[in-house]
Design brief:
Layout lengths: L8 H8 L3 H8 L7 H14 L5 H8 L4 E6 L5 H16 L3 E6 L4 H13 L4 E5 L8 H5 L5 E4 L10 E6 L1 H14 L5 E6 L3 H17 L9 E4 L7 H17 L4 E4 L2 H14 L8 E3 L6 H4 L6 E3 L2 H16 L7 E3 L2 E3 L11
Parallel strand pairs: 1-2, 1-3, 3-4, 4-5, 5-11, 6-7, 6-8, 8-9
Antiparallel strand pairs: 10-12
Helix pairs in contact: 1-2, 2-3, 5-13, 8-9, 10-11
């Protein structure tokens, strides 16, 4: 008598009228779906006689239930929120998180990644990675899944996936806001040690000016050339140092690479006696805790930082279950506060 075919997750998904991933999450008690759906699918699985695949169970049994998280620094509010998102989702799934800092050094970053790989963590999350093509051969030897958050380097490698915010869309939002207020002379303060995101935000700066028939002047763009010590204090120094040059160039508004650079710009304005936003408008990027602490409160572009951390961890969990995962590009949002206004001439 022939054996009846084994009931699969796909069979349950077809019967329930839901996706394969929804069934998988229900069977693993994932908090990403409602209790009602979990209960209904689990009951359907029992009714259909579903039994977990022995190979999948053995793979699950080999998990250490630990993941590595590599950030550049704990001094940046951006990373504090990303870490929070990763930790929340990891804890709910019963995973431990080991945190390490690369100090903005790609060699140190790859060494930490290799150490995590040797220590048998189940996967690694990399925030603002600088690992580029020079490390391709070493990356190819990493056998565990790696999720990158706001990757700063180019290249595609096996087992590597990414979660990012749309820097270009965010930059366009910032520039359109300033131009809609009536600003024509807009400066940009950028950084060189985050080439990926800085390049995309600069591109949006130039294209927005071009779209509105504004010719960008070379003296309107200031780029910090330091490549190390990425932290909040360093970004504030960038804003303090470069803002006077843009004021001297006659700009009426400045698009700052991030909120900490914008905070430094505010300090420079205070020292020079320049009133914000009456004489100069400032807009940042990130929407970190500084925005509402400084005075005036900063207009900025919101990055869903906690959500990026949660998404990265969920992608790792999905990969452990054998589910297909893909890159995600999340959308930013404009947050208008007190640091932007029409130029004085208007």
């Amino acid at each position: 008598m022939p054996l009846e075919p084994r009931v699969s997750i796909k069979d349950i998904a077809r019967t329930a009228g839901v996706s394969f991933s929804t069934v998988s999450r229900a069977l693993h008690n994932s908090p990403l779906i409602s209790e009602e759906v979990r209960t209904r699918i689990q009951e359907l699985a029992r009714t259909m006689g579903y039994t977990p695949n022995a190979l999948a169970q053995s793979l699950q049994a080999r998990l250490t239930h630990s993941i590595g998280l590599i950030i550049t620094t704990i001094a940046d509010p951006f990373f504090m929120e990303v870490v929070s998102g990763v930790e929340q989702t990891a804890r709910q799934a019963g995973f431990s998180v080991f945190l390490a800092m690369s100090n903005n050094d790609p060699e140190q970053e790859i060494q930490i990644l290799e150490t995590f790989n040797r220590r048998r963590v189940d996967g690694v999350i990399l925030a603002a990675s600088r690992i580029g093509a020079d490390y391709a051969s070493r990356l190819e030897r990493i056998q565990i899944p790696v999720i990158m958050i706001n990757n700063q380097a180019e290249g595609e490698y096996k087992n590597l996936y990414s979660v990012s915010v749309d820097d270009y869309a965010g930059g366009c939002m910032a520039m359109e806001h300033l131009i809609a207020l009536g600003h024509q002379k807009i400066g940009y303060i950028g950084v060189s040690n985050r080439p990926g995101s800085n390049g995309r935000r600069m591109k949006s700066y130039f294209l927005a000016l071009q779209k509105h028939g504004i010719i960008a002047q070379p003296e309107w763009i200031c780029l910090d050339v330091s490549i190390h010590n990425e932290d909040m204090a360093g970004d504030i120094r960038v804003g303090q140092t470069l803002t006077p040059k843009l004021i001297q160039a006659g700009v009426t508004a400045i698009f700052c690479y991030c909120d900490t650079v914008a905070a430094g710009a505010l300090l420079a304005c205070r020292k020079l006696g320049v009133s914000v936003p009456e004489e100069l408008s400032l807009i940042g990027f990130d929407d970190n805790i500084l925005c509402e602490i400084v005075s005036p409160a900063l207009t900025t572009i919101h990055q869903p930082k906690v959500e990026m951390g949660q998404m990265a961890m969920q992608m790792l969990l999905n990969s452990f279950r054998g589910e297909d995962i893909q890159d995600y590009l999340l959308q930013p949002a404009l947050v208008v506060r007190e640091s932007t206004a029409p130029p004085a001439a208007l």
